[in-house]
Amino acid sequence: MDTPQNPAQAGDQPTMTDLKVPPLRIGDLVIDPPILQAPMAGFTNFAFRQIVREYGGVGLLATEMVNARGFHWLDENEAEFPDRLWGVEDEPRPLAVQIWDNQPDVMAKVGRRLVEEFQVSVVDINFGCPVKQVTEKAHSGSYLLRVPDRMGQIISRLVEACAPTPVTAKIRLGCSENTINANEIAQVVEESGASALTVHGRVAEQYFKGEADWERISEIKSYLKKIPLIGNGDLDSADKVYRAFRDYNVDGVMIARACLGRPWLFAQAAAAIQGRPIPAEPTLVEQRDCMLRHYDLVVDRFGPSKGTLLMRKFACCYAQAKPGARHFRSAVGNVSTPAEFYEVVEKHFPISPVPLPV
After folding, report:
1. What are residue 96's DSSP bridge partners?
2. Where are the domains of the chain?
3. For residues 238 and 7, is the Cβ–Cβ distance under 8 A?
4. Confidence bin at 9 (pLDDT 50/70/90)
């Protein structure tokens, strides 16, 4: 695989000065720095976006992906908007909302609502999700890579409905190694009026296994005449982001799973491409405090019981690759109350004890 290697070690604070990365333009929207946060179902909610925004370094944040048909049903039945749109109306811009389905008219109606009522900055279409519930059952996400004409219809309708707000698309290289068609799809995306294309450097059948193929991402650039190419896959260090811009001819990058337990990664990546010293990793105490701040935001929204359950997976992300992470994950996976959560953090997160709430 050709993904960038040799990430800088925490605390080295290297400065990279031989690279000048211009802002990313998506339609009339200027994204600076050209570093995007990926939409991730179950993770990139308002609480997580708040944490990322506090550290800085991200040019465009995104919601979790929203089921357009489900949103449309809720709207027709005058029900509340999906939880995945929590915070969207009031938080700072720019902000993207990603939607998925396979019905052009439904997608267009939802896109228009997002533009008119929520004033979102970008409407992104998910053509990359490999999860069977989306692909096999709903014939959406990466399934649609098999039917480029349908993709074109969806994009065209959304572009018309959302104008002048830009519409973008996120894809994978193909459904399988034997059906890689990203070059063809890229042309369909551009000709249908999309303002940018994001490519995850794996095929759908890989899910997240193996390594992202950045050579194939780079190859797609020659098939685009005017819209920017955004690369995605395995960007887990500032050095890899730097090398993605330097070596693979992308206009922007999108950071996904690596940021879930390291929301400061965006600030490190931005420093790398701007020729500034790269901030060191936060101390373990600072990382624990970040996790607890995240927990407070989730509980404020969903209440102590549901908030604690939802925070389990986030807490596991914060512990990843740390000493004792296995014990922490095992323990935090069973908590159901704030008292239990704080007790597990005190006992198992790899730093000095924290006071339990009174």
Report:
1. 62, 122
2. 24-273, 284-348
3. yes
4. very low
